[in-house]
Amino acid sequence: SQTIHQWPATLVQPVGSPLSLECTVEGTSNPNLYWYRQAAGRGLQLLFYSVGIGQISSEVPQNLSASRPQDRQFILSSKKLLLSDSGFYLCAWSKGGETQYFGPGTRLLVL
Amino acid sequence: GENVEQHPSTLSVQEGDSAVIKCTYSDSASNYFPWYKQELGKGPQLIIDIRSNVGEKKDQRIAVTLNKTAKHFSLHITETQPEDSAVYFCAATSGGTSYGKLTFGQGTILTVHP
User: Fold this and answer.
1) b/e per residue, A33-62, with b = 16+ CB within 10 A?
2) What is the per-residue pLDDT across A37-50, written as a single tens digit (0 to 9) for each?
3) Which sign, positive or negative, has the C-alpha torsion B25, B26, B28, B34?
4) B102 closest CB neighbour out of A100, A103, A105
5) What is the pLDDT of residues B20-76, one digit of tens each?
6) Closest alpha carbon within chain A to B43
7) In a 3-state reduction of DSSP, which class is residue A85?
8) Chain B residue with minimum CA distance to A98
9) From A6, A49, A90, residue closest to B99, measured CB to CB
């Protein structure tokens, strides 16, 4: 069966510091991968998606970037965090671009 | 692009009652409609989905109905239990792209009182 992991589970970072969140998927190959942000427990905003290694598409302009160095690894990064980057970050995967399965999420607090 | 509206934003029911959450979508090309349940501090979990070639789907106490003409779909939970308390999200996708972009509703906070 497939499993999706995210780490860290929680993170507190000062404004201006860098960020790296990691997501890995087990039990499948060549999945579509997605990064979402959820503010205040409501509404999921798609940030990035990837259909293959090194292929990243951005949905909204922002202070964040994404990379996919391996088939089942998806990384969300920032060089300098802003207060507005606080939120709950969710990674998801799908096979064939339909049903998406979400990871446990990373709660980020920028102070 | 696709726009999904979800109502109500909050729903409070007594244990054993039924709960209904409704969503409307704007893109007539949308053909896949999943529902997710999100418990506090966790990622959303898929609970049921429906494709546009089907009008209704049921899984134990949960059912989803789809009206393509009116462009709306609904989640029905019968015999609610306190553990059904969570935030529920509907979503829609056209499936016309290789990456399957989902557009989500804003969520419904369901509270089931014992």
Assistant:
1) bbbbbbeeebebebbbbbbeeeebeeeeee
2) 998 767 898 999 99
3) negative
4) A100
5) 999 999 988 888 999 999 999 999 999 999 988 889 999 999 999 999 999 999 999
6) A104
7) helix
8) B100
9) A49
